[in-house]
Design goal:
Blueprint (H helix, E strand, L loop, with lengths): L4 E7 L3 E7 L5 E8 L14 H20 L6 E8 L15
Parallel strand pairs: 1-4
Antiparallel strand pairs: 1-2, 2-3
């Protein structure tokens, strides 16, 4: 059986990080990036969902895969963690509603 990998992405308050691990859970690669957030009112925090949640996920995934040469077909699972329960309603074209 060909080696398989797991991809994990964590979207945090001020940055995102990602990791690829192999079958033995050994880290093959890791990467991180910072991002902005807004505090429109005391106790509030806002991210631009497209620029932070989606773009960070895509950029980190590409960086990890390109940097390791891991075949995307060998990724057996993807896990994503975020800072809190949140949602961004979108229409069928992924435009904000």
């Amino acid at each position: 059986m060909a080696e398989q990998y797991l991809l994990g992405i964590d979207i945090g308050t001020s940055g995102s990080s990602g990791v690829i691990v192999d079958d033995d859970l050994a880290v093959v690669a890791s990467a991180s990036t910072e991002h902005d957030f807004r505090v429109p009112n005391p106790g509030w925090l806002e991210h631009d969902a497209e620029a932070v949640w989606w773009d960070d996920f895509v950029a980190l995934s590409r960086e990890l895969l390109d940097g390791t040469g891991v075949d995307p077909a060998a990724i057996a699972g993807v896990g994503v963690s975020a800072i809190f329960a949140a949602m961004q309603p979108v229409d069928p074209t992924r435009s904000r509603t």
